[in-house]
Design brief:
D-Maltodextrin-Binding Protein, domain 2, alpha/beta, elongated, eleven-stranded mixed beta sheet
């Protein structure tokens, strides 16, 4: 019942936010100025790739600790409230900059301009390593012909310069290539643009997806589709029976070793950032994120943990 209540409260808060546009503030009393009030509510906003990890950890943390005094005896007897709202990496950074969220979630490297906007108290926490797999439906006959694509071939496909499968290989049918991408606010779009597209633009005919889970599902449901499913989403889709096949990029496979070494070029950090000093309650939850429990949740979501167990 308590877990259901927490979920319902989180849903109510998310529905009341306009793209993470309202931050829950700690209550102050006459004897306790607002700036010294204990922070009982924490809000994360942004990347849909990090969202399932943080949502799971927020749920398990609030199930384990009902009151902040249960976390630390020096904390007050206030209800633990941790909210996680998806919206894309760009939205997450903006929310952290303007103070409408405590932490912005990103699935890409942060830009120097964003770091500067967050100010001198900027801090970042890398939770996982991810990559963008160039994936097709496993039933696509191309899987029997090749398992590797050059970066330039991928660029031509996603730019719409190559628009049918027989242009990739003459033995394939002249079926239209259906391109699937993340929406333009997602960190994946920027990562793919930088690593593969360069000065070329993704075709306007591409179908945008609101999350990595949706993107992987779209590819899995289209025998003539291709898209850049995140490594975590790719692994979860295959584990759930939505079979995808990932192409090597310039001969390099998207696997854990190649992602960690940096040899696989289409990769990104999955992290959260803030421009505010870390409060005691925030630090307690951050410690939980980077605990053995957090490690297991990262793995369960198909990602590579960026910290040791």
């Amino acid at each position: 019942m308590k877990k259901l209540l927490v979920v319902l409260l989180a849903l109510m808060m998310v529905l009341s936010l306009a793209a993470c546009g309202q931050k829950a503030e700690p209550a102050a009393t006459e004897s306790e100025p607002a700036e010294e009030a204990f922070q009982s509510s924490i809000l994360f906003c942004g990347s849909t790739s990090l969202y399932p990890i943080m949502s799971s950890l927020a749920s398990s943390f609030t199930s384990k600790y009902e009151k902040w005094s249960d976390v630390d005896a020096s904390f007050p007897d206030a209800n633990v409230s941790i909210y996680v709202a998806p919206g894309g990496s760009g939205v997450g950074v903006s929310a952290a900059v303007d103070g409408t969220a405590d932490f912005g979630m990103l699935a890409r490297a942060i830009k120097d301009s964003e770091k500067e906007a967050l100010g001198e108290n900027y801090s970042e926490y890398i939770v996982a390593r991810d990559a963008l797999t160039v994936s097709v439906n496993a039933s696509n006959p191309i899987c029997g012909l090749m398992d590797d694509m050059s970066a330039d071939l991928i660029r031509q496909i996603f730019a719409g310069e190559i628009s049918t499968w027989d242009q990739v290989d003459a033995s394939l049918p002249a079926e239209a290539i259906n391109v699937y991408i993340r929406d333009l606010s997602g960190g994946a779009y920027e990562v793919f643009q930088k690593a593969i597209m360069g000065d070329s633009q993704v075709t306007d005919a591409a179908t945008q997806s609101a999350s990595m889970t949706e993107l992987a599902t779209n590819i899995a449901g289209d025998p003539w589709g291709i898209g850049y499913a995140g490594f975590g989403a790719y692994n979860k889709a295959n584990a759930n029976g939505q079979v995808l096949s990932a192409m090597k990029v310039d001969g390099v496979e998207a696997n854990e070793a190649n992602i960690i070494s940096g040899e696989y070029k289409v990769q990104r950090p999955v992290m959260f950032v803030t421009g505010d000093p870390i409060s005691p309650s925030e630090q307690a939850f951050i410690d939980y994120i980077f605990s053995e429990t957090g490690y297991d949740v990262v793995v369960a979501n198909g990602y590579i943990p960026a910290f040791n167990k």
